[in-house]
Amino acid sequence: MMQTNSVNKHLLGGVATGIGSLPHRDAKQGAEFALRMTPELPSIPALTRRSPNESMIAMAVAGIRGIKFGQYNSCVIDLDKIDRYADVITDFDHDAYLGLRTFLEVAKGYTGPVKWQFTGPVTLGQALVRIGVPASLAFDVAVRAVRTHVQNIHDFVATALPDSPQVVFIDEPDLAMMMHESFPIAPDTAVDLMSGALAIIERDALMGLHCCSGIDGTPLLAAGPAILSIEVSDNVKSYAGPLAKFLESGGIIAWGVIRTDAPIMGSADRSWKQLAALWCELVQQGCDAQRLRQQSLVTPACGLASFSEEVAEQIYAQVRDIGERVRTQALATRLNIGA
User: Fold this and answer.
1) By CB distance 3.0 to 4.6 Å, which of 152, 217, 257, 297 could disulfide with 90?
2) β-strands 166-171, 67-69: how paired?
């Protein structure tokens, strides 16, 4: 089994990787794109345009007894069959896993680190509540499903790519609602659920926590990730203190450097300036400049399924451009201090 320290040595400042989905309808082309555009840390993509079964919720509910994902992102539930203690089945022959299977076939013989991500228990629990599962049952079912699927996917990837260390992000977009009065569980409970998800395979993979919403990252850090995946925004300054401690403890930040909810610029210059300006302010609030650069990955802010393949390539080219700038600064910093 791969230990997390065998992954860390690959994650130098500025390494680029992906987040979630790609727009490709052809699974082989999607896999080849991921391997070509982020060769140091390719991210196994979800191909939701190819099939809605690859969407994050559909993949997570597949194998839960009493829940069936239908056409047009609909879910059919049978409450009498849903059981918090029932086994969850991870069927790798299911259409939900075609993208994963194809990536592993295309990547045969690859020995570098590989990244993938899976829906977190808070977001999955919220999704189950929305389709009619009582909250008292929904989150127990979600925890069991996430635990089972994450362990099984890890083992499936390890069998196909036995020499590849794994980086795994737990994806929690619904945390943006965590402090709202309508949120069905307490914030402390949400942190505990995320922490438990991160612990599933933390001895065998480097575990990250991703949230593309501009929220207070303090609860994310409290869950104990090795990697914090967040978009570049002014909101990050509000938790500069906890972030400084996270970096001091060896934590890595995956910076969502290219926004996916705004027009895509013709070059990476503006996005780079935003990242550099944020880093300057974080340093003023106590973060270590060397650690900010060296303990960093760069990514798009979120998945790219809503873009064309051509624009997705443009976005990844800009992410890599920023990654090279980060790497240049990280190397310069190391040389300046005699590393």
Assistant:
1) 152
2) unpaired
pTM of the model: 0.93
Would you say how long the chain is, in residues?
Answer: 339
Any idea which residue has 């992954």 for tokens?
A: 7
The CATH number assigned to the domain with range 4-336 reads 3.20.20.210
| Domains in the chain: boundaries | 4-336
pLDDT tens, residue by residue, 144-186: 999 999 999 999 999 999 999 999 999 999 888 877 888 899 9
**What are the C-alpha distances in Å from 185 to residues 135, 170, 190, 199?**
8, 18, 7, 20
pLDDT digits (tens, 9 = 90+) for 234-252: 999 999 999 999 999 999 9
* Contact (Cβ atoms closer than 8 angstroms) between residue 284 and residue 241: no
pLDDT at 6 over 60: no
For β-strands 206-210 and 227-231, DSSP reports them as parallel
